[in-house]
Structures are given as structure tokens and as C-alpha cells.
Amino acid sequence: MMWRPLLTFLLLDSVCTQKGSSKELKGHVSVVIVGGTGDLAKKYLWQSFFQLYADQILKSLACPSEGSEERCALLKEQFFKLAQYQQLNTTEDYENLARDIRQRPEDEGLAEAGRLFYLAVPASTYADVAEKISRSCRPGQGQWLRVVLEKPFGHDLDSAEQLATLLKKSLHEDEMFRIDHYLGKQVVSQILPFRKDNKNFLDPIWNKHHIERMEIVLKETLDVKGRAQFYDQYGVIRDVLQNHLTEVLLLLTMGVPADMSNSDEIVNKKLQVFSSLKDIDRTSAVIGQYQAYNSEVQEELNRTKEDISNTPTFAGVVVHVRNTQFDGVPIFLTSGKMLDEQVAYARILFKNEVFSVRNSSSLRCSPKQIVFLLRHGNLLHSAILVSKNLFKPTVPDDSWKEVTGERDTALFGLPLSGYHIYMPTFQREAHEVVVSQIFHGRKDSIIRVETMLASWAFWTPLLDSLAQQVPRTYPGGTDTENLLDFQLHGRKITFTNEAVILSPRAFVGGSATAENFQVMRGKYRNADMVSAWPEELIDRLAADLQAAAEEAVEGGGLFHLALSGGSSPLALFQRLAVHHYSFPWQHTHIWMVDERCVPLSEPGSNFHALHEDLLQHVRLPYFNIHPMPVHLNRRLCVEEDGGPLLYENDISRLVNGSSFHFVLLGVGYDGHTASLFQSTQLDSHAHRLVVLTESPVKPHQRMSLTLAAINQAQRVGVLVTGKSKHEMIIQLSRIKDDPQKWPITGVRPTGGKLVWYIDYDALLG
Ligand code: BG6
Asked: What is the pTM for the complete model shown?
């Protein structure tokens, strides 16, 4: 494999304070950036090492902001003279490098203090590079080796464990500097000291009784151009939530360590948080992808147009810490590319119970909040903001200053003048801070293997559960409007906007405005059709059902709903169970469209599935539930037992005019609906509501509503999902009504409305 050109440069006469000892080691430090011409190095590392060099030379006088331009130019010249490029490929290359590293200080008559290797290469090469460094480039006795690794440390828990095991073969844990540059952000590194310095104010309120919610947000306007290879394998959750945002979450929720410099104590406190985190799954997250993403990735990676990626570029996740301090406080972690602004913050919003009779817009009634502005958006600097209705915090130390809201800007519902604001005296890039810390042997921004693995253990189940999920497409920038807003229902979240997003599959070349992203509505077989990606389609159907229920209850006090079996409606049942708390279940009667002749307690029974996925989760009165009587007199569906008649009588007795408010149907590959098949003598049921039928597939015996019963309904929804139904959907679109051959074509509500709910997989194939 061809390594990126390697950069080595040498810092002469550096001063290095070794951690754990007060003695200062004077000596020469070699710095090697493996991958010195890559993206990371170009963007941050050169500048950071230059800053370090300038700091060393000028003894903490930063350049260029404080040094003169001429001085800086001179420094740069000297700095570049120290730099050398070398190709690193083979073991010999590393041996040559080791020789050079030894040689340089010897020539200058200097002692070596240590060697710092910064791996700015893809993580897939870490183990190999580490092995070569260990084999060929270890320094002598008493000199240190520091190998800096940037995330990603793996792709999931298994791969992270594998990488950790491999690296351990070459490097000791204290030689590995796994960095998270977010920990080098000035405001992030101030979170724990801030919590400690303001303990008196915070202790009484830093808990579930006072905190309404926390938001940890990284919004970016950038796309992924130039990084598609990496990004498409990782996506937003692995790229920033699993690491940067999780670290911020830990700093906000961990116990404040008594000794801030004790890394063992810090790690233990972080692990305690991980052990209290509630497991997350699909319902804890919403994901999106900006519209141009696929064409960018296809172009950069030479992929075909058919090669569609579902990698999310946006995610919103709700996390809960289940301990006595935070139980019930939702913590939102959100990040996305191609959003409307470039900003990162952690916001702690406190409950405000004050009701001001005189002036509801007074500060007393305004949001009570602390904002750690990690990367500035509207403000020009990163800062810590504490709303004045909370308390006046202590200014950290000389490196921080208090400022007054200079501009007439509002932030999170409060004018700047409503905050106490603190900023670092000198703004420093995170990588600069991290590089300097590592150079000085400090582990402040280092991720220990235990917490890294604990984080993967937390995120991996969610990542697995989202692997097949199609993200919501968003136009990007301000056009996205509120498409990505999400909301909390209990401990789950969903997008607030029911709009269905069309993917590039459906709209190649369409213009990217919010209008293009609405629900696709159309006509199918002369009836209304709603179409969308599966998840959004289910959301829409559930919302339509709820609307029908509310309308019926308002009109007559009751809602009669008849539900089909099969696999298509299962997602709907789950959706209704989890997201529709306000559904008028107390006033809803559930009927069955059809049933298999098996005991209701068996998994093959339609009622059993309905019970598992919906009924047991909602509060519906028992007497409102109407399973079909397929099991009478200890036998299944025997004509003489009169099951269909019993059900028919119940319908006539309880349902006004035997007209259900909503009947939900599916369609089989052969065009059957309910349990009405090609072989079913439909004509003979003209005056019946319920009949026994024979299915061509097992279990053969069925009980079913008739077309007459279905067509009396006020609304009929036909749900069709999945690619395997595509052929059938195409065929059905072409044929005339022929119920005996295609029972579904006999569904023509006499006074009611028919709506087809067809997902894109079924519609577009
Ligand atoms: C990096 C991610 O770790 O963090 C990038 O790989 C992201 O995708 C960046 O843009 C954000 O960092 P910052 O410092 O610019 O907020």
C-alpha cells in the first residue's frame, strides 16, 4: 500500500514538562506527521504545530495575532526549514526515518527528549503504522514515545475492540494519545471547571427537578465533498455523535471529579454515566440525508446512479440518563451537514415556574438557561452564557474575561443583554490546544480505551437498528425550513412534520426546494393515493387514522375500526402504540377484517399479532375489542357453529348501519384482499357481512368480512408496501374491475372514500 507522503519536522531545544513530575526535561523532540499532506494536516495540523513552535520560541507569545508580521514571517521560514518530507511505505522507510530522527539531534549536539507521531492517515492503517513505529522508531531509554490517533476508532463495538487489541500489541496504553479534538475546544474544557467553580449555585439545580432538557448540537453548513470515501462508511452518528457530542454529554452529566487532573477519577466518573444511560433504539432517533448527497458521493466514488446510499448526514437522538439526578430529563444530541448555520453548543434549559402577572416578557419569565457555545454562530466568539435570571457565575481565571452583549442579538429567546457572558481571552483552535497538550505530555483531551469502548457499546445497537432505515431527504441550507424538526413523545422522538420526503430515486434532477418534499398524492385506479417511503407512509396512515377517529368520536362518540392481518399493518400497529398517546382509544372499537382459523393465542392468528403489537400497549376497554369467533365449541371454523353469523350480529348491533368508520385492507400478490380469494364465490355473499372462506395457502380456512361489509364503510384504506408488491401494483393499475379474478377491484365503497397507501418500494420497484 502506498502511504501518504510523510512529513517529519524537528523542534529543537524544546522544553517538555513530563506529566506526573515537576522536573522539566530539556531536549529535542521529533514530530512526525504520518499523512502530512492529507486533509486533516492541511486544515489543522500544520497550523497547530506552527503555533506550538511559535509558542516554544516566543515563550507563549502567539503568532500572528500578537507577534509582528515580520517576526512571524521569519518564524515561518525557520519552521519550514525544520520540515522534511519522506515517503513512508516499507519497514526500511521507517528504519531510515528512525536513523534520521536519531541523527538530527546528534548533529546538533542535543539530547533527545521524545518522539511524537501524529497519525493523520485512515484508521484502517493505524495498526500497521503503529506496528512499524514500534518496531523501528522506538526512542531510547528514558525518552518518551507518543502516538497520536484521531477518531474513528472503529466502526462499531466489535471493530473498535479489534482495533484496540491490535494497537495494544504495538503500543502501551500510555503511549497512545487517542484524541477527541472537541475536548480541546476552550469552552468544552471549561465545562467541568465551570461546574466546580459554581458549585454553590449549581448543586441545588443541576438535576431532574430543575432541568427541563439539555441540547447538545453541532450544526454545519458544509457538505461532505472531498471526504465521501470516509463519510459514506460512517455517517453523522459515527462521525460526531458517538464521540464529540457524547463527550460533551459526559461532561455535563458526570459527577464533578474532586481532582480535575486525576484521569483515573475522570474515567471512572464517565463510566458511571455510561452505565446509567438508557439503551437507545430506532425510536430514539430521527435521521436525514441532504438531497445532493447521493450525487456527490456517486461522483466522487465513481458509483452508478442506481447505487443509492442511505448514510445519514443528519441525526437527532434523545438520550436519558437513568439515575436519581437526571432520570426523565431528555438530552437531545443533534448534528447535520448542509444545515442553515455553522454552530455548536450545549444548552441546559431550566424549568421556569414564575408567572409574572405584570409583565410576562420580563427577565424573570424568560428562559433560564446556560449555554456553552462551543463554536460560535451568531456570536463572534465561543463563550459561556448564563441567563441573568439564574445566577452570576465566577469568571474562571485570567484566561477568561467577562464581556457585555455588544450587539443587538438574541440567543435562544433572550437578548444578549440578558446573559452574563464569558469568553476566553485568546481564542485558540482546538487542534492547537490538543497538540500543545500532547507535546507537554498532558492527557486532558485524550480518550481512554475504556470510555471509547463504552461509547461504542452504547451507540452500536442504535446504529444496527438504523442500518436499513431510509433517512428523510432534506434540501439543505435554509430551504430545509422545518423539515428536520423533531419532537419528543414520552422517551421517543419523531419528526414533527408529517411531510413525506422524496428521495433522489424518485426525483432525479428535481429542484431542491421545500415544496418538492411534500407528500406525494395522486390517483390510483381512480381513487386517491398517498405515496411515500415506508416509514413516512406509515406515519401518514397513522395520522389519517387518528384524524378519522377524532372526527368519528366528535360526531357520534365512538370510532369503529376494522383491521386486517398480515405483515403490512404491523408497522402501523407499532406506530399507533408508541406515537399516538392522544388517540381516542377509550372510544374506539376494534374489529377484525379477517382471521385465520387457528386459536387466537397462536402466533399465526391475526388477532394475536394485533394484540402483541398494539392492543397490549394501549388502554382500550376490553369490551371494545372484537376478535372473530373462529374457535367455538372447541373447534375451528365449523359452519354449524355459526361463527360468521355471531360476528355479523355483533356488527349489526354495535356499528351504526353496519358501516365501519375505517376499514384497513391489504392486497396479496394474487390480488386477494381481506380473506377473499379468486376461489371465493363473491356473488353468494351479497347479503352477508361475514363468511368462511378457503385460502390457497395455509392455514386454508379463514373468516372474512365480505365486499358488502367493506363497501359500506365510510373510509377504506388499502396499504401496500414492499418491492415484492411492485409487479402486482403495475398489473392492477392496468386492469378493469374484475372482482372474481382480482377481489381487491371489488372494493368500491358505496358512500365512503377509498384511499390507497402505497410505499415507493411497491410503487416504483
Ligand atoms: C470532525 C468530523 O471530527 O468534526 C467533521 O469528522 C466535523 O465531519 C468536525 O465537521 C466538526 O468539528 P469542528 O471543530 O469544526 O466543530
From this structure: 0.67
